[in-house]
Amino acid sequence: MAGIRERWNRFFTEPIAPPTAFQISRGFLCGVRHSRKERRIAAHVIRPLPPGALNPGFDRPNVVDAPALEAAVRDAVRRLGAAEMMVSLLIPETAVKTVLLAFDALPSADEERESVVRWKLAKTLPLKFSDLRLSFDVSKTNGGKRAFCVLALESVVREYEEAFAKTGLRVRAVGLPTPHLLGLLPESGPTEVLIANVEEDHLSLFAAGDGGPVLFRVKGFTPASAAGGEGWPLVAAEVVNTIHFLEDRENFRVKAIWVRDARGAPSAVEALAARAGCPVRPVGFASPAVAGPREQALLAPLIGQVS
Question: Does the model's pTM come out above 0.85?
Fold first, then answer.
């Protein structure tokens, strides 16, 4: 587990991510300021967003109410007391596309490797790559190599970045919430894991082992199914189906499931453990600065990133 955690911390965030980090979701703007010297969270903020201010998606404008988002960012920055001009940002996973590509081999030179990845992506997805931002991470498999690719429209990412630029801040690194939860898993635990990250409008499933990412899926919720804990039967069904898919198609056996529920459903782990067939545990962290399970759940991806 330590290997994939270290590699993922480099993916998206090289050079080293700034100590001030934010996450934007449909309903919240969250932020943390990490003191590297004291190795603790120096400040944090959880700021609700007005309903309808954001409509995350891959191929459409995401920021519906730009003044409301900019006001939230200004307030969050003030409350964090952030002095750094550079920040990192986790954006909604419904705003990107992820693809896992298999290769027999890849060039060692970075430019040649990217050219090969882009060539295969162009054959896989009907997208204009001049309009896209691409990040990818390459890991070894038994028979070759696998590239985990994340794509986002340049215009969509710029919408989020501009909300911070209006406050004088520059977004130095853009990433996704779910993979950064790896930073909160114990290093001594099982290496074959599945992370179930439940946001207010979607479920993300991320499977990884020491060899690297194996699967990433994002499943949208309807407003009715997302309300309170009502979505848990759907979540459990998706998790069980994903476990079977991994066993049948990827020869990957999940040995532990880690759950982060941003909605704060109290019976999340219990509801899933009854059907999963392997240990199910909540993703968590210990910090005297953050009290309450809902607050810890909302801040978990950021804590995993800066830790």
Answer: yes
Q: Which CATH class is domain 14-94+153-178?
A: alpha beta
Residue 241: count other Cβ atoms within 10 Å of its Cβ: 12
Straight-line distance from the first to the last Cα atom of the chain, in angstroms, rounded to the nearest whole number: 15
Orientation of helix 154-165 relative to helix 66-80, angle to 10°:
50
- DSSP lists the bridge partners of residue 257 as 194, 280
- CA 217, CA 84: separation in Å to the nearest integer? 34
Amino acid identity of residue 159, one-letter, is E
Interior angle at CA 282, CA 279 and CA 287, nearest 5: 140
Give yes or no on whether 14-94+153-178 and 179-284 have one common fold: yes
Please give the Cα distance from 190 to 196 (Å, whole number).
Answer: 16
Give me 146's structure tokens.
Answer: 């696998």
Question: How far is the C-alpha of 131 from the C-alpha of 24, rounded, in Å?
Answer: 22
List of the chain residues with pLDDT < 50:
8-9, 12-15, 227-228
DSSP letter, residue 54:
B
Instruction: Give the whole-angstrom CA distance, residue 256 versus residue 175.
Output: 24
Q: Which CATH architecture has domain 179-284?
A: 2-Layer Sandwich (3.30)
Binning the chain into helix, strand and coil, the percentages to the nearest 5 are: 35, 30, 35
Would you state the torsion angle of the CA atoms of residues 13, 82, 41, 180, taken in this order, to the nearest 10 degrees? -20
Q: What pLDDT was estimated at residue 12?
A: 46
Torsion angle of alpha carbons 206, 111, 151, 154, nearest 10°? Answer: 150
